[in-house]
Amino acid sequence: MIESLPRREREVFEALCSLGEGTAIAVRGALTDPPSDSAVRTLLGRLEAKGLIGHSTRNQAYVYRPVEQADSVAETALQRLVHTFFQGSAARAATALLGMEKALTRAEVDELQRAIDEARGEAK
């Protein structure tokens, strides 16, 4: 469903996912070239009407949060990225991501090795 959102709604949704939760002001601050405060509130209302986000009231302010599981949203976004920029190759995307990182922690290297071992059918 995320792919079918209009551009601005998707931007607002992705900003909120990145924040984890936030007020309309926080979401607006996370956007590049943000629309007006009232436009952000309208977009958040549309996303809530579509069931993608919810809100609670904290200190008389609406605090929005994604309803969909973050892993599901991240996987969909990553699939779109891999398809668009890496000809559908997860290996090419992973190589590009690793090239962006100057140094990996030992835990990150171990996690990557486990994923490689699983892909080879060598899970331990």
UniProtKB/TrEMBL annotation:
SUPFAM superfamilies: Winged helix' DNA-binding domain. Keywords: DNA-binding, Transcription, Transcription regulation. One of its GO terms (biological process) is negative regulation of DNA-templated transcription. GO terms for molecular function: DNA binding. It comes from the Bacteria. Pfam families: Penicillinase_R. Belongs to the BlaI transcriptional regulatory family. This is Putative transcriptional regulator. It comes from Sphingomonas leidyi.
